[in-house]
Specification:
The chain has about 210 residues and is mainly α. The chain has one domain. It has 10 helices and no strands. It has helices at about 5-20, 25-30, 50, 55-80, 85-100, 115-125, 125-140, 145-165, 170-190, 190-200. Helix 2 packs across helix 4 and helix 8 (about 145-165) packs antiparallel against helix 9. The chain is globular, with a radius of gyration of 17 Å.
Length: about 210
């Protein structure tokens, strides 16, 4: 296989990962359960948290699982077929960006927390576990889901590189992919960051303020 064929194969792999990430489980399960389109109420975000506002916990749980599973699946396949670390990193970013900017929803997707977690589960389960524990600690002590997610976004790359020195083998390309994902997560939470600064961000268990 020459370089042009390699490039086309890599492009096809990245496109497939993006399409997997583009599957809008919030919309899919809302339709299955006969709920309103999650883009028409609450925050307008096609994600599990907004689906939960419909009152259907099962639909929200399935959305959360689906969004995480697609991130895990794309990266797991890339690792299972022994792709290079550079291409695995590309797949991780492609499936994540597919969720954020899905072609099936005119490039208006969710915030990506669940999909990012799925990506981390495939890359290194222990890193994902450490990230999940961080989320729980932040959520319990501060009661802000968005703050917990932002903290995890910042810490995940550090966990990856630190664990790579002690427990697992790390790769620079994959670490950079995690940093890029963290940056996009913070960008997608910019409204939450503004509300946190202003003191108007709703805590866990509270309704969203108008």
């Amino acid at each position: 296989m020459d370089s042009s064929e390699n490039a086309l194969a890599a492009l096809g792999i990245l496109l497939a990962a993006y399409l997997i990430g583009s599957v809008p489980f919030a919309v899919v399960f809302s339709r299955i359960f006969g709920l309103k389109d999650p883009r028409t109420y609450g925050s307008g975000n096609p994600g599990a948290t907004n689906v939960l506002r419909s009152g259907n916990k099962l639909a929200a749980a399935l959305t959360l699982f689906g969004d995480a599973a697609k991130g895990w699946l794309a990266v797991w396949i890339a690792i299972a077929v022994n792709l290079s670390p550079m291409l695995i990193a590309g797949v991780a970013m492609a499936v994540f960006l597919g969720h954020l900017y899905p072609i099936f929803l005119k490039f208006k997707g969710g915030k990506g927390v669940a999909t990012a977690f799925g990506v981390m589960m495939a890359i290194e389960p222990l890193m994902a576990l450490a990230t999940m524990v961080t989320w729980i600690i932040m959520a319990v002590f501060f009661r802000y889901s968005s703050l917990a997610a932002l903290t995890c976004a910042v810490f995940a790359p550090f966990y990856y590189f630190f664990g790579g020195m002690l427990v697992w083998q790390s790769h620079l390309a994959i670490g950079i992919a995690l940093i890029v994902i963290a940056i996009f997560l913070m960008f997608r939470h910019k409204a939450n960051i503004q509300r946190l600064i202003q003191g108007t961000e709703p805590r866990l268990g509270q309704g969203k303020k108008n």
